[in-house]
Amino acid sequence: MLKFAELRAILADPALLARLKQSQREYLLNFESATFDTAYAERRFRIGLVHERVGLAQKWYLGAYRHLAELIVRRLADRYAGDAPRLTSLTLTLHKTFRLDEIFVVEAYYHNTTQRLEQSLRELTEAHRQMELLSRLDPLTQIANRRALLEALDKELRRSRRYHRRLALLFLDVDHFKTINDEHGHAFGDRVLRHLTGATAALIRLADIFGRYGGEEFVIGLVECDEPMAEEVAERIRQTIARTAFEWDGHRAHITVSIGVALSTPEVATLDALIEQADRALYRAKTRGRNRVELYRPSPPA
Q1: Angular region, 249: left φ>0, alpha ψ -120 to 50, beta rest
Q2: Which of 261, 276, 299, 302 is the most exposed place for a label (fewest CB within 10 A)?
Q3: Could you give the angle at which helices 38-53 and 58-79 cross, rounded to 10 degrees?
């Protein structure tokens, strides 16, 4: 076996090689008294596991077994050259024993390989889950990014239409955010958005949908929500954010938000239409002085 480079790398440790030789010697000397019971099977199985774990490929293990069998058969042939029946019996017994042990070896290798594959699959599945989760989160605020937000809102809108329930959409925008960035720096602006996200998330239900639409714009979907409740939640968010100044790293700014609110109706067929209505309400809040909540109202007919 030491003639092959791959095996020399494994058997280079003299202590390991000595243990393997001693183990092989005991194995051969115990042939005559061997009892092929459960304990024997478990012992052979463990030996196979050890060889697999040290990095010995299955082909080398089985190849060495067959080479060992050939060497023993030659010795038997020399010793029992004049006793054909005895030689035949011993040879058959030897091959049956070795074949049984080879089965345990293959099972040991298969067991370990299967375990590693299952572990790899679990790790791959978890990595895929984490990547999928990260791909749906806004890296700054750790809430839903625009893609995940729109997917969730579209699904909820279709569900609300199916069961004749209303979905309220809150379109939120930070007032004068460019000025905040210009005066205090973008790092401070990022902290403002994180502060706003945390404060807002604490005021809505777990079932509601919250995500970053883009820049300093956020969208909230309030499930199964009527107009008074939607207006109340929006006003609570506005007041909470406006109540205290935000401070970080020696900088201080008074943060306010404008919020546009729209509610689904049988006439609102798509999510884009509902978002457009909320955006119009937000624009009205901006033009009316900011730091306010406006409900969408359809334009009166001409």
Answers
A1: left
A2: 302
A3: 120
Q: Which residues contact 90 (CB under 8 A, 6 or more apart)?
A: 76, 80
Q: 213 in helix, strand or coil?
A: strand
Taking the complete model, does pTM exceed 0.85, yes or no?
no
CA torsion sign for 75, 81, 83, 85 is positive
Q: Are 220 and 200 in contact (CB under 8 A)?
A: yes
> Would strands 293-295 and 257-263 be described as parallel, antiparallel, or unpaired?
parallel
Q: How many CB atoms lie within 10 A of CB 102?
A: 18
pLDDT digits (tens, 9 = 90+) for 165-223: 999 999 999 999 999 999 999 999 999 999 999 999 999 999 999 999 999 999 999 99
Point out the residues that are catalytic: 216
Burial 167-180 (b: 16+ CB within 10 A, else e): bbbbbbbbbbbeeb
CATH of the domain at 105: 1.10.490.10
Tell me, what CATH number does 178's domain have?
3.30.70.270
Instruction: Tell whether 162 and 257 lie within a shared domain.
Output: yes
Q: Under a CB-based contact definition with an 8 Å cutoff, are residues 223 and 167 in contact? A: yes
